[in-house]
Structures are given as structure tokens and as C-alpha cells.
Amino acid sequence: MPDIAAAADPNTAALVVLDTNVMPQLALYPVGGTSWACPMTAGIVAQIQNARVAVGKSMFGLNLVQAIYNAAAGNLYHYRYYDVTTGNNGNVAGPGWDLVTGLGVPLGPALTAALIALP
Question: Percent of the chain, pLDDT > 90?
Fold first, then answer.
């Protein structure tokens, strides 16, 4: 069951710069799908954890999942998450939490601010 969503469409890939010892010249490669969505989501989580530490709070552990659901409660939901209401993966996306995109796509700055404010 999904908790959150990220851009996982391989047809809307991001261009990534690769530079290795094997390839002496920089090259741009399109990266999409979960190969892009997972590191993008990990980056948002890292920003949240670092921001909490910067203000003297502990990092989230196993309670991160509960915290992202708490941040979705109430009238600020659409400020913290982009609600994906179309699409399917065998289930149909709809308003609010669904089996396709979970809570939706985290809106990094607003979600970060909400999670920093938590004890």
C-alpha cells in the first residue's frame, strides 16, 4: 500500500549528468521510473531530517510514517501534498488517500516546515 507518490513515469524522465572514469566526457542520460522517484523521495526525507537536526530536534525513526500522515490531516492537506486524482495501477486514483498514490506527492518545502514543527 502506498504512503506517498513521486514522479515514476519513465516517459517524463529527468536528465542526469554522469561522469565516470570509464567515460571521460560528461554525458546526459534520461532517468525515469522508480530509478528517479526513489532517490527524489529519499532527498526530501533527508532534507526533513537535516532540518530537524538543525533546529535541535531528533530525526524521525520509525515514526516518520505516522508523521507524514499527521501532516496530511486537516485543512492544510493540499498545501503539503499534491493530490493525484487520475490514473490507475489496477486500482483507480481519487481524492485523498488511494491505493494508487497514497497521500499524493509531497510538496517538499511545506511538508518540511510541518514536520520540523513537530516535537
Answer: 61
